[in-house]
Amino acid sequence: MRKRTLNRGLAGFWWLTLAFLYLPLAIVVLFSFNSTNSAANFTSFSLRWYHRLLGNEQIISAFYNSLILAIVSSLVALVIGCLIGYGMYRHRHRRLGWLIVLIYLPIVLPDIVFGISEMAFFVQFNRLTGLLEPGLGTMIIAHVTFQIPFVALIVYSRFVGLDPSLFEAAKDLYASPFQRALHFLLPTLKPALISAFFLSFTLSIDDFVISFFTAGPESATLPIYIWGAIKKGVSPEINAIATLMIGAVALAAILSLLFNRQGRR
Amino acid sequence: MANTPLVTRRHAVVSETRHLLFSVMPGAVWIFVFLVLPSLYLMAVAFMSNGPYGLPELPLSLDAFKQLAGFGFLGWSPGNFYTLLRSLWQTLVSTALVIVVAYPIAYYITTCRAKLRPLMLLAVVVPSWTNQVIRAFGWMNLLAPGTPLSDAAQALGLIGQHMGLYPSNFAVTLGLVYNFLPFMVLPLYAAFEKLDTAQVQAAQDLYASPMRAFWHAVFPQTLPGLLAGTVLVAIPAFGMYVIPELLGGGKGMMLGNLVANQFAGGSNWPLGAAGALLMLLATFVGLFAMRRIGKRLGGGEEVVI
Amino acid sequence: MSDPMAGEAGSRAVTAESRPREASSIELEGVHKRFGRDTVALDGVDLTIQAGEFFTLLGPSGCGKTTLLRILAGLEEPNAGRLKIGGRDVTDTPPHRRSVNTVFQSYALFPHLSVRDNLAFGLRMRGERAAERDRKVAEVAEFIQLGSLVERHVDQLSGGQRQRIALARALICEPDVLLLDEPLSALDAGLRGQLQVELQRLQKRLGMTFVFVTHDQDEAMVMSDRIAVLDSGIIQQVGTPGEVYEHPANAFVARFMGHDNLFAISRSEADWVETELGRLQLDPAEQRDAQDGWLLIRPETLELGPEVPEGYNRLEGFVRERLYRGSRIEYRLEVNGQPLMAVASNLGQRMHGVGDSVTISVCPEDLVRVAS
Q1: Is the ipTM of this complex over 0.85?
Q2: What is A55-264's CATH superfamily?
Q3: Is the pLDDT of residue C13 over 80?
């Protein structure tokens, strides 16, 4: 009897928590379709805020910045992180403690410390050399820095899951080092690489703090634009971009999950 | 015959080392140049003096730390000190609340059918995939004046007329709990999943009351997960920037905002760097403590991220 | 699936596939291999394997047999010593340039490729033309009677099928030497016995040099032309199965080949020895320089019965245990307080019961002195 009451209570609590988790997002999505600019009353369904978006050049440029940043940084991080993951696997019997510390550093460092370190560094570097002016370039560098560990760990765990004899079988069957990379390593890694790319992409699109501190005047991304718009005053347009971003990130994350599952099979 | 193989052997070691360098070095150098060096520079800035444009200058000094503690050239003022206290307080309260919510949720998920569990975990995690700014914005919409929640709070006399639930310290706490809930549910779920049910049944036989059985058999087994979750929540909460900035207003500032402001508007790099150093210190103390306690609890492995 | 490697299709495929080519010999000189600072895997191995021989490296785990095989494959570099295959020094040749192929213990089939692409992998890496590859794959697939499986994915195959694919993937490259690293250890006993016979027949038909690694002495004896027994990185004995079984070079080899009846020799003369069993006559021709050492009595050479033939050694004892094995009967005897094992073929004779006193006779020529 008591056990059933407990379970009922827990189930109720579960649905309450789910409501808590999804309510803020649902509100954003709902009011993006509101026909008036009231944030409190939903009047009627309309797509006017989405139409407004298309005409807003700042948003379009922020969208392109976000996209370029996410794609370029993910690709760079993919190459560098993949090499580290492979190196960690090949030399896993050596003492690589320093490397592990280095790889976990970007993960454990608080965002704000990460962001202002980069900013201070880039500003001073730019003052001394005139290079690395704050903008998309510095943002890409910063994003690659926090994406590398995730790519490296995904690639490494894929290798650890493989039969070590496979590497030797490739050598034994006359594959030169280049052929081994092309015909064995890359095809074997493909699912992990795709999954790592999507994760990097998601992390990049999701990031605000680090982007905010490394951005230049011309390189605002969507989250930075939204931030600025919120600080200026709530506008229903923000609901519309936010809704599109919620959809895009959810899609990318689900794709990443799917590929990861396929890779593990 | 004895000489050649030695040469081969040395050659092999050299080529292995070269391989290690080529594979690992690009990334290691990248992280070193673009993260370790900047962090070291930031630490150095904390010990410099504040120049006319907010940029750090020599000579070295501890002024930044004094300012962080509240000592300015007008004598002691409580602003910065309160910000530090508020950061600590918010971290403690939100972590405690996250535990209170996450513990039954994690337990409930383990009682459901095995097929449902991954989906339920996914449902908990998915909101955190959305941008922080957007999530905070969602709460702004929910808590603004004139919304049903604010109206209800007014009716209960919790807040004044024509006020909203945001901006306020309460909104910051809510935002923190919302933001970090999944970070606690996942490790706790892992701990519950591994729960040794034989022990629990033995305890139910030994102790008549379910409360005591829980306390002696269940709770200790979930401690490693609780510990991991606490670190995952408390460390980033202490350095949170976005949520207090958007939901807190002027009186809700935390350490992250203090630090950020010195680099953006306030322009006192050494003070900001000193705050960042404090945060860094808190991070490493937290991680270190977790490793130590984790090892003593025996379930140290899953505690590491 | 009855003995596919010996079938009609098999012999045709093999004759078409293997152009007449010389089998290759293998010579190892002073091969040393160390792991880390002080783990010695191979401690000065000198060994010659004849061309076209089925050669087995036998020993307990950690004896160095797998390391030796990996050195032949080029997957491990020796710290010292030379290796020649087919008369050519290949010590410094990387594995992908050696005409040597390996059947791995885990089979190591590429999970991202179909069976067909697995089979063709080596040919493709060597740059053979697609038409040629397809022809060879079709031939070898028919040869191992798995033609219907070539489009399958590797994870859809049974253990026995994987084993055949791994073997075929190595054979299709027509290597000078085929290396087999415990390829049967993952299979169940029935399939294992069948494949032992098939592998041996296959090797004889191809005339290729096979180097086989196993820790199972029965498997080694059934299949091999010659066996090298290894322990602690040192070759203890090289010989035909008969030599290694009947005249083990030392006590380790004797024990590893499954012998229980070893007795410390306390005094040794030209034609007799003194042991715990008593004084026993030996064949004077069986001259060993080992003065102290062990006396080996093979259980199947002991005869139980009241009559002792002329010139035979006579022992008195009693039966402690009797194990009925169907084709044979094992007696655990006790002689002079020492345990002694005897095996009699089950010819329907009267069995001795537990506790019975028995007279045991053994021919001096069957007694072997073994070094420590």
Answers
A1: yes
A2: MetI-like (1.10.3720.10)
A3: no
